[in-house]
Amino acid sequence: MAFSLDNIVAWAKRRGFVYPGSDIYWWLANAWDLGPYGSLLRKNIADQWIKYFVQEQENIMLIDWALLMHPKVWEASGHVAGFNDPLIDDKKTWERFRADKLIEDDIAKNLEKSNEADILKKIQADIDANIASIVADSRTNDQQFKYITWYKLKNPTNKKDADWTEIRKFSLMLATQLGVIENDSAKVWLRPETAQAMFVNFKNVIDTTRARLPFGLAQIWKAFRNEITPGNFLFRTREFEQMEIQMFVKPEESEEQFVKFVEQAGYFWKNIVGLKEENIRTRDHAKDELAHYARQARDYEFKFPRWRWELNGIHDRTDFDVKAHQEYSWKNLQYNDPITWQRYIPYVVELSMWLSRAILTVMADAYDEEKYSDWNWEEQTRVVARFHKNIAPIKFAVIPLVKKDEGQVKMAKEIYKKLTQDYMCEFDDSWNIWKCYRRQDEIGTPYCITIDNQSVLDGTVTIRDRDTMKQSRIKAEEIRF
Questions:
Q1: pTM summary value
Q2: DSSP one-letter string for 74-86
């Protein structure tokens, strides 16, 4: 069963995963703070990504570059000239919206009643036969404007008929100033992506390490985009995190690396993060949807009740990036092959994952409301977060059955102290045992360990499984994750 975004947002705040940013000051729109459990969830996803994509790979290195870069970097990459969103205004209210977002929301509603193939056929018949995808941002401004006016899309704020302006471009770049004098010479950009630092430092890595093609640079860091209409909780925000690898390869090996990244990304989402297979799919970009630097691209998408969102993208970027930085910097960035002695610009295959979206995705995938019969055979409903054990914020909850029993509390604290050497755990003696179980179910703790009178006598404990709610008795020293 799929649950609405409202369910997820309310639960995330109630249980300390995500809070509205600057909440006591009436919230800064679309800014979100990670609470205690959200921070652990983020860390666990990132740690698993590093383990699988860096630690277990022999030719990928982790790096950590600065947020601020020379302005020429963003000229070479094409961001200054071409990184923008299509905006449209309602002349009746002078509210401003992203044109592709209006279309995206309209198509999401249509998907509740029809399938993608039929919707695409209708769009092609009504708007333009050359449109190859239902993805809104793959179209020209003219095609988007015709869609909005042909289907008479309403103002999303007041739900009334709108008088739309033509579509205009709006830069997504966020600027700041260096130094004490504010002028154009002191202007620098907050990076809108993490990839460029890896291209800029490609030669440094070659010169200072034993790296030889193929090799990859990996980074987890923040980026910033001046989104005019961010929304859908953590899905689209102005400040976000990416987990990204740029793989430098010989030109003839780019296709092989592209396929490898597709397979590895699928394994990561399904087997390491634990997303349900029926909730994810791949989608190839149509030719008119490809980024200016890409020869081919494939996304992994997650299925939410009203739309699918992009989890990550795999792009064959060819030699566009390194070649562009060579041109703008006037530095020789060619690779000197130590075997063939050929000199050439390497191709780059990119694996880019959205860490912020991954947090939201695993919460949406794990959230469940389940009916069960309690000890008195009365039907109850519990909220349970079925996080994969790899990423669950808390691995064990240690609970003394009677808070005032000194023997139980002493043994529980000893077990807790031992387990915390290897796992993130909670010691919970604040409520009765059933309330403790319910709370731990809601934050996704896989196992609850209960210490009772028998535990003090014979050294055994009760261990309860989150998903089945079954309990078994084992010796304390046999506790394993």
A1: 0.86
A2: HHHTTHHHH-EEE
